[in-house]
Amino acid sequence: MKKLLLHTCCGPCLTYPGEVLKKEFEVTAFYFNPNIHPKSEYDLRFLNAIKATEFIGIRILVGDYLPKSYFQAINSNDKTRCFNCYNLRLEETAKKAKELGFKAFSTTLLVSPYQNQELIMKIGDELACCYGVEFISEDFRPGFKEGREAAMKMELYMQNFCGCTYSFAEKYDDRLERG
């Protein structure tokens, strides 16, 4: 069975893609998310990612928590912020996959209806060419609800923002505008 390194943003988003991919691959989750802030939020999501991997029955690796690299990469430009964030996390996953001998990589970001799937797939495909590791660009969004239900049964923490300070501020601003 081919080995796949699955970039994992959080436990709830891991549930569905993890189950689907383990049917065809030997899956290892890779928790690399320097975008998540504050550190307490990062830690909470990491603990829940571990809980999800134990439930699914897959291994997990953790990358370094380097928020400075995230802020340098995004350069706070609204137009390219998400692109740079996706690229940072997927490139680290592709590098790690190549370094550890994985034949493929993917990301749990592909399950979220809130993420730019087309952009994620484009970045993944480009990185696959650069690193010589196949990118599995499957649309997991049809399983989003099923994954959320599984996460609730596992009593996983269910966050309501992507993790970065910008998305948190946008969520807060939206709530203020709605009253």
Automatic annotation (TrEMBL):
Signal peptide: none annotated. Keywords: 4Fe-4S, Disulfide bond, Iron, Iron-sulfur, Metal-binding, Oxidoreductase, Queuosine biosynthesis, Redox-active center, tRNA processing. Pathway: tRNA modification; tRNA-queuosine biosynthesis. It is an enzyme of class 1 (oxidoreductase). Its EC number is 1.17.99.6. It catalyses: epoxyqueuosine(34) in tRNA + AH2 = queuosine(34) in tRNA + A + H2O. Disulfide bonds join C162-C164. It holds the Pfam family QueH. InterPro entries: QueH. Belongs to the QueH family. PANTHER family: EPOXYQUEUOSINE REDUCTASE QUEH (PTHR36701:SF1). This is Epoxyqueuosine reductase QueH. The lineage of its organism: Bacteria, Bacteria division CPR2. The gene is queH.
